[in-house]
Amino acid sequence: MMLLRPRFLSPSSPSPRRSPPPDSSRLPSSSSSSAPPPRARRRRRRAPSSSPPPQPDLRRLTSRIVDLTRRRQLPQIMDEVGAARRRAVDRGAGAGAGLNTIVMNAVLEACVRCGDVGLALSLFDEMRGPGGCGVDGVSYGILLKGLGIARRIDDAFEILESIEKDTSIGSPRLSPHLICGFLNALIEAGDMRRANALVARFRQVLYEGHSVLLYNLLMKGYIKSNFPLGALTVKDEILRQGLKPDRLTYNTIISACVKSAEIDMAIRFLEDMKEEAKRDNNPELLPDAVTYTTLLKGLGNSQDLYSVLKIVVEMKSAPISIDRTAYTAMVDALLACGSINGALCIFGEIIKQAGNNKDLRPKPHLYLSIMRAFATIGDLDMVKRLNKRMWPDSVGSISRSAKEEADELLMEAALNNNQIDMARGLLRRILNEKECFSWTSRVGMIVLNDPVEKYMIPFQETQPLHADLILEEVVMRFFKDPVVPIVDDWGSCVGIVHRQDCTKIDAPLLSMSRGPPLCVPTSTSVEHVIDLLLREKSEMVVVVKRGNMYEGSYASSSRPLGVFSLAILWKFTADATDIDGMDAAHQLQQDVEASNCG
């Protein structure tokens, strides 16, 4: 029965519990006989006004604390709790009498969630003090969980021992609920040694009711540790205790097998799960979307396309609800196996069903996953379409990092499609928006792994000078270009002259070159060429056709096809007039070194 407090009723409205009005024809005509009922009603309405106000205010305060806890606003919580205490003192209550244990337990939970275990301990001591509101089992459970998160294991065990010896204030009962919060904190931290010690110490208490929940918790701990297959030993213990594994048990075991890359074992447990559900006629044990999603992740990592397709067909025929997460797992697994067409089919199915079910609208992650696959094969048209449809068709907010990755995928697709000019324009647009560019990014690594032939300048466009020319005759050329190749009478490149080496105005150019030029074949990666330039402290390398020459001195039989310099690479991201070659070298050096380390 729902109780309605009279103070929430409007004075002008009739009482909800009043009986229907009697027939006016049966009432006496004297007005004196009808006077008492109104006075009685007035007395009934005034009676509650003398009762103390209270619990609704505390309920609202508790709800407010829970809401602020979700937003991690601990200072605001303490301010409002302090204000509530001051109001209680003004009403004549004690400093701790105004707030009850339920409210203070919510404050303790807020301290633990926000990571301030020291404040939680102070409040706990205040609650169990002489003027406090008192503590209960919930208070101890929250404090134990906080101590476990803060890795104050000894303090937590001291509290448990005091509860076990019945010497703690509040006389809490040692129960599985009290211990499980502390146990879960140890498991989340991956400390299975102390978690197993806690289970062994309080085995009789934790095994009350013979539930598999505790075992599922221990299996989750093994998954978070470096020995996920240890969850299988917990399953054996479940069977020894005469318990029945539930769906969560099997899902946890399958997740442990996937994390250990034991995909065949995971599939065997899936079959055991279905057989046991059929044998016991227990539909609650049948695989759900979580089971199949976990398997798809493992099969995608192992690139087993046949098994992925088999699981997808089984999911569609099973009596389960396939949500957005399950559809996304299908697409990711198919892409990991290289089946772009299969991923597109599932993606089209998602878009079709999202028209009737808004909860199936894909998130930007799904668009980016498919764009990565098409960018890798250089399908620029598909990347453009997906990038355009991601904005109106995806659900949720599109972060700045997602937008930047989408632009970089467009540039990657243009590069892999050999549309260098378009890629250069996209990169300049990215730079205008980001104001920075890292060569260790996805696009940067593609450029570094590309052959140098893709970015070289044809040799004749460099306007090489004859080696026998005197510097005085061509001195103005070096005010324009920091480095110039020189050739002999047969058009072969015999050296490279740097601006800083031009010290003798009446000397021939050949005497100021640094020896034979550095040469690389056309198939050499840009990354290797940059390493060579930085190592040899040169600004230009000659690209030749001979495939048997990787680097080193120039051979006259290898005709120069083009040149490559750091300034040329820098033109890909900035105006060449803003920076010369060696400045580009200094700015690229850190990214190249990071790439080599990777």
Automatic annotation (TrEMBL):
<dbReference type="InterPro" id="IPR046342">
    <property type="entry name" value="CBS_dom_sf"/>
</dbReference>
<dbReference type="InterPro" id="IPR011990">
    <property type="entry name" value="TPR-like_helical_dom_sf"/>
</dbReference>
<dbReference type="Pfam" id="PF13041">
    <property type="entry name" value="PPR_2"/>
</dbReference>
<feature type="region of interest" description="Disordered">
    <location>
        <begin position="1"/>
        <end position="59"/>
    </location>
</feature>
<dbReference type="InterPro" id="IPR044781">
    <property type="entry name" value="At5g10690-like"/>
</dbReference>
<keyword id="KW-0129">CBS domain</keyword>
<dbReference type="InterPro" id="IPR002885">
    <property type="entry name" value="PPR_rpt"/>
</dbReference>
<dbReference type="Pfam" id="PF01535">
    <property type="entry name" value="PPR"/>
</dbReference>
<feature type="domain" description="CBS">
    <location>
        <begin position="512"/>
        <end position="579"/>
    </location>
</feature>
<protein>
    <recommendedName>
        <fullName>CBS domain-containing protein</fullName>
    </recommendedName>
</protein>
<feature type="repeat" description="PPR">
    <location>
        <begin position="100"/>
        <end position="134"/>
    </location>
</feature>
<feature type="repeat" description="PPR">
    <location>
        <begin position="211"/>
        <end position="245"/>
    </location>
</feature>
<dbReference type="InterPro" id="IPR000644">
    <property type="entry name" value="CBS_dom"/>
</dbReference>
<feature type="compositionally biased region" description="Low complexity">
    <location>
        <begin position="24"/>
        <end position="34"/>
    </location>
</feature>
<feature type="compositionally biased region" description="Low complexity">
    <location>
        <begin position="1"/>
        <end position="12"/>
    </location>
</feature>
<keyword id="KW-0809">Transit peptide</keyword>
<feature type="compositionally biased region" description="Pro residues">
    <location>
        <begin position="13"/>
        <end position="23"/>
    </location>
</feature>
<feature type="repeat" description="PPR">
    <location>
        <begin position="246"/>
        <end position="276"/>
    </location>
</feature>
<keyword id="KW-0677">Repeat</keyword>
